UniProtKB/TrEMBL annotation:
The keyword Ligase does not apply. PANTHER family: ATP SYNTHASE DELTA CHAIN (PTHR11910). It is a peripheral membrane protein. One of its GO terms (cellular component) is proton-transporting ATP synthase complex. It comes from Lysinibacillus composti. Keywords: ATP synthesis, Cell membrane, CF(1), Hydrogen ion transport, Hydrolase, Ion transport, Membrane, Transport. The keyword Nucleotide-binding does not apply. The lineage of its organism: Bacteria, Bacillati, Bacillota, Bacilli, Bacillales. This is ATP synthase subunit delta. Belongs to the ATPase delta chain family. F(1)F(0) ATP synthase produces ATP from ADP in the presence of a proton or sodium gradient. F-type ATPases consist of two structural domains, F(1) containing the extramembraneous catalytic core and F(0) containing the membrane proton channel, linked together by a central stalk and a peripheral stalk. During catalysis, ATP synthesis in the catalytic domain of F(1) is coupled via a rotary mechanism of the central stalk subunits to proton translocation. This protein is part of the stalk that links CF(0) to CF(1). It either transmits conformational changes from CF(0) to CF(1) or is implicated in proton conduction. It is found in: Cell membrane; Membrane.
Length: 178
């Protein structure tokens, strides 16, 4: 996802509102559900972005599709439609998730490995690497990457901890070849 300034601003405003209403977890869950809907049926996002329908009709569609969502989520989607920035909805959800995790002392982490990690392994990685970046816990997304040969690479924000066999072989190659 791109680092959109617009998405950050909308996410920040939505986060402040959710904090005041004490609905951060609910709004975050609704936004993640919105991401799933848009990813599984990209036609909806295309429909909301097309000029064929009036802005009012697009708002009605959003109200119908997300009728069970928190009203703040529906309102921000309708605002994005008004401003012709509905394409920023996925970025907004991503930015909101980061803000919510940060507020709860969590941080998002991507762990690259050659196989699916067990829950115990995820917990151990979360504990040990969380301490390195000053967080209580990490929300881990496991990405399978067979080219690593073995070991793990952990990415937390701008930090990358690479303890893979592929990386060690590359370092050895640079040392030997020069």
């Amino acid at each position: 996802m791109s680092q959109s300034t617009v998405a950050k601003r909308y996410a920040g405003a939505l986060f402040q509102l959710a904090l005041e209403q004490k609905t951060v977890a609910e709004v975050n869950a609704d936004l993640q559900e919105l991401v799933k809907v848009f990813e599984t049926t990209p036609e909806i996002l295309s429909l909301l972005a097309t000029p064929k329908f009036s802005i009012q009709r697009k708002k009605e569609i959003v109200a119908e599709i997300f009728s069970n969502a928190n009203p703040a989520v529906v309102n921000v989607l309708q605002l994005l439609i008004d401003k012709k920035r509905v394409n920023e909805a996925l970025n907004l959800a991503s930015e909101f998730e980061k803000l919510a995790a940060e507020a709860q002392g969590f941080s998002a982490a991507t762990v690259f490995s050659t196989r699916e990690l067990t829950e115990q392994e995820k917990e151990e990685i979360s504990t040990s690497f969380g301490k390195l970046v000053g967080k209580e816990k990490l929300n881990i997304t496991n990405v399978i990457e067979p080219s690593l040969l073995g070991g793990v690479r952990v990415q937390i924000g701008n930090y990358i901890f690479d303890n893979t066999i592929a990386n060690k072989l590359e370092n050895l190659k640079r040392t030997l070849v020069g």
